[in-house]
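Section 3.1: Structural characterization of target chains.
Under the original work plan, the team committed to producing a structural model for every single-chain target entering the pipeline before any wet-lab resources were allocated. The record below documents one such target. The sequence was received from the expression subgroup and is listed exactly as submitted; it comprises 59 residues.
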Amino acid sequence: MLGSLHAALADKPIEEWSFEARGEKLENFEEFQRLIHEAESISYGDFVARADGITVESS
């Protein structure tokens, strides 16, 4: 998921990040990553990462 986001940005400097898990905004990437690793299952849209206007959702 994050690899897709990184590829879409093509090494441009990222100015704005946003992370959500199951509809709740998260404070930082570390929390986002921890919740992904702890999840027993992941459904479409459970995890969302946004960077500079590009959105990637779990599927």
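The chain has two helices and four strands.
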